[in-house]
Design a protein that fits this description.
- This protein has about 625 residues and is of the alpha+beta class.
- The protein is about 45% helix and about 10% strand.
- It contains 29 helices and 11 strands.
- The strands form 3 sheets. It has a 4-stranded antiparallel sheet with strand order 4-5-6-7.
- A hairpin with an 8-residue loop joins strand 1 and strand 2.
- The longest helix has 16 residues.
Length: about 625
């Protein structure tokens, strides 16, 4: 900490108000003590240099690189007087838009134990009296490191300001995860179906919480991984399960929240961030016999088994043998006649067919250093089909690349990308859901080295906020004979697939073998698989531009989508019929335009699809 600086406060503007006082006033004025929308707004522009400064002329803005250099300097040494840090930030031009740089700089500050008390006093002054967003964020970041339980009410109040929710929740996570979860939910959730639960949590109506917890729909449309985690934390799920040990609805909801937290199509690391995940898994599996045998409950328990076997659930810090015991218990229960019969109740039900296909796959994973497990998730949740990679029994992709699932078996196995040939091969194992250009992808180079196969030269983004690549992962070495055998086994195994999916794979294989079926129409093969909304339809996409078939496209291409319903015939017959139609009819006459630009479509004579099409 620095020597005492002059404690003359900045001359307040007529409408300046501490942000903490501002939110307290808004809470008093709110009918139910909760903020509207996604949190309270900041006070008017004059109340904090931050609000007006966000609209500074670009010539006066502090450049990012400059801010990254001066913010750490402004924090060292830490002043004793909160007004001093206000002045430093104001003079340097530090604004609310630099929040991430402030958070990173405070997190990196050397802060020995003997300075904790002084840093805490400074942080409390900043959070309780601060009028500018940057200084308050610095206070929040300090409390994330040195805060105490008495700081929770102030942090929870500031978290209701839209501009401060993230830093406040981060600080609360270190002190009171239940309070952090409530603030996050109150400030983030707008789905009408979830609002009764959020309102009960936000107003402290503990009696209403259990009923509202089991009342809302818990499918993928309503809760992603972050929401599922925060709900479990906010309701203190282990405590509820202990208080109501024989409630099947609560038990079912607990299992469903675990399934949603581990969802690979979102961010399965939210499951790893949930500190009570292990105990809730154990409780749900131990009491699973209380659940009535239904398709929904069967799907929940089977999904839990998939997560424990090869998904994010396998990455939890399990005591030796515990995870295996849970899988054995689920295997025994789902094999009981009353549960096993559910898969045969309706041959046309997508979930029942998924249960039949999946069968005992999560319970029969083989041994070996490398294992490829193709996992198709619950079709009701529209989960992706993944070629999950396990090394020494540990799922690789969610461990090192959280923002996206491992690629499909069509890409990694059907396209033979995992084979180790005589030349090194760079392979993309996974891509972020938002695209590689946004949050990156995971790459590895696969090469054969004598009697071994080596995975090395990993490439992935850094998820700590740095602009650099993430630290290099170690090379993995496999016995070549065992490696080749496992890849061959995985490529030959299609027991995970279903009729429409197999048809799509055969159509793709036919177009790979006979590309002229499309090039004759100046088209090029695109993505071919089953529909996202309806897994019993086949989707064939292709690009078109004049000259594309000859390799010299005249202008940007348009994208077309051909949807082929599953007619019940064997996949081989359906694929052959689709390929014959592609050979004999220009696919642009029966496929739907789905991509490109409106101007290009008009230029080439194609009507632009309606917005809802």
């Amino acid at each position: 900490m620095s020597a005492p600086e002059e404690r003359t406060a900045l001359p307040p503007a007529p409408h300046d108000l501490a942000l903490y006082d501002h939110v307290q006033r808004l809470l008093r004025e709110s009918p139910d003590g909760l903020p509207p929308g996604r949190g309270f707004d900041l006070p008017g522009p004059s109340a904090s240099a931050a609000s007006a400064a966000e609209s500074d002329d670009s010539e006066t803005r502090l450049p990012y690189r400059t801010a990254a250099a001066v913010i750490p300097e402004a924090l060292q040494p830490l002043p004793e007087d909160p007004a001093a840090l206000h002045r430093r930030f104001a003079e340097l031009g530090v604004r609310g838009r630099h929040r991430h740089l402030i958070l990173s700089a405070v997190a990196a500050l050397p802060l020995p134990a003997e300075q904790h008390a002084a840093a805490r006093a400074l942080a409390r002054g900043l959070t309780r009296t601060g009028t500018a967003v940057p200084a308050v964020i610095a206070g929040l970041a300090l409390l994330a490191r040195v805060g105490e339980p008495e700081d929770v009410p102030c942090l929870a109040a500031l978290g209701l300001l839209r501009s401060l929710t993230g830093p406040a929740v981060q600080a609360l996570d270190a002190l009171d995860r239940q309070a952090a979860a409530v603030v996050w939910l109150v400030s983030s959730i707008r789905r009408a179906e979830l609002l009764p639960l959020v309102r009960a949590l936000g107003t402290g109506d503990g009696r209403a919480v259990p009923g509202e917890l089991v009342a809302f729909p818990a499918d993928a449309r309503f809760i992603g991984t972050a929401t599922a985690r925060r709900i479990a934390e906010a309701v203190r799920l282990p405590d509820l399960l202990a208080e109501q040990p024989a409630d099947p609805a609560l038990l079912s909801r607990a299992g469903r929240l675990l399934v949603r937290m581990a969802c690979s199509s979102d961010d399965p690391t939210k499951l790893l961030a949930y500190h009570d995940a292990r105990s809730v898994y154990e409780t749900v599996v131990d009491r699973a016999g209380l659940l009535p045998p239904t398709l929904e409950h069967h799907a929940t328990l089977l999904s839990l088994a998939q997560d424990l076997s090869s998904g994010a659930g396998a990455l939890l810090d399990w005591p030796s043998g515990c995870r295996e015991a849970l899988l054995d218990a689920l295997d025994r229960l789902l094999a009981e006649p009353s549960w096993a019969a559910l898969a045969e109740t309706d041959p046309d039900d997508a979930r029942a067919r998924w249960i039949r296909r999946t069968g005992r796959r999560p319970f029969t994973t083989g041994a070996g250093r490398l294992r490829i497990e193709v996992v198709a998730g619950d079709p009701v949740d529209r989960e992706p089909v993944e070629a999950r990679i396990l090394v020494d029994g540990r799922p690789l992709v969610p461990d090192v690349f959280p923002p996206g699932p491992v690629h499909s078996p069509e890409r990694l196995l059907d396209d033979r990308l995992l084979r180790a040939g005589p030349e090194p091969r760079r392979v993309q194992l996974a891509e972020a859901w938002c695209t590689e250009g946004c949050c990156g992808a995971l790459y590895v180079t696969i090469r054969r080295d004598g009697a071994e196969v080596v995975w090395e030269e990993w490439q992935r983004p850094d998820f700590t906020g740095s602009q650099e690549s993430a630290p290099e992962l170690p090379a993995l070495r496999f016995d070549a004979a065992a490696y080749d055998a496992e890849i061959a086994r995985a490529e030959a195994d299609d027991s995970w697939s279903w009729r429409a999916r197999t048809t799509a794979r055969l159509i793709k294989a036919g177009l790979v073998e006979r590309p002229e079926l499309l090039t004759r129409w100046d088209a090029r093969r695109g993505w071919i698989s089953t529909g996202h909304e309806d897994q019993d339809t086949i989707v064939v996409t292709f690009l078109y531009a004049p000259g594309l078939g000859a390799g010299a496209a005249d202008g940007d291409p348009l994208q077309f989508r051909w949807t082929v319903p599953d007619d019940g015939a064997p996949p081989e017959a359906q694929a052959a019929a689709a390929l014959r139609r592609l050979a004999g009819e220009d696919p642009k006459t029966y496929a739907q335009l789905c991509g490109g630009s409106r101007e290009r479509a008009a230029e080439l004579g194609f009507p632009w699809p309606p917005e809802d099409g």
